[in-house]
């Protein structure tokens, strides 16, 4: 047996699996009418390819809210999650700001 084969066989296995980086976005809740689901609108500034001017892009994501604790107008942070339904692949991580 060569040295390389011996080293790979004797290397101890830790058994810990590193989870991939999950995307985190921040946005405002636009709808909370569904049960355990909120619609979060995320606004991003992107540079226009031709005119080199910044434009606002708004995207809406459906996020899981287990206890129905967030309301319309709240600013929240959402994180990528496993698919929970046809459209829902995000969950609310934390409340950032509640309007007065």
Provide an overview of this structure.
By secondary structure, the chain is mainly beta. The chain has a single domain (28-97), classed as OB fold (Dihydrolipoamide Acetyltransferase, E2P) (Beta Barrel). Helices cover 8% and strands 46% of the residues. It is built from one helix and five strands, in the order αβββββ. It has one helix spanning 3-10; strands at residues 24-31, 37-47, 54-64, 75-80, 88-97. Strands 1-2-3-5-4 form a five-stranded mixed barrel. The longest helix has 8 residues, at 3-10. The mean pLDDT is 89.
Secondary-structure blueprint of this entry?
Layout: H1 3-10, E1 24-31, E2 37-47, E3 54-64, E4 75-80, E5 88-97
Parallel strand pairs: 3-5
Antiparallel strand pairs: 1-2, 1-4, 2-3, 4-5
Tag the structure with descriptive keywords.
100 residues; mainly beta; 5 strands; OB fold (Dihydrolipoamide Acetyltransferase, E2P)
Q: What general form does the structure show?
A: globular
Helix content: under 10%
Gyration radius, in Å: 21 Å
Structural class: mainly beta
Q: For the residues shown, what is the average pLDDT?
A: 89
Counted by DSSP, the helix tally is 1
Largest sheet: 5 strands, mixed, barrel
What would a concise description of this structure say?
By secondary structure, the chain is mainly β.
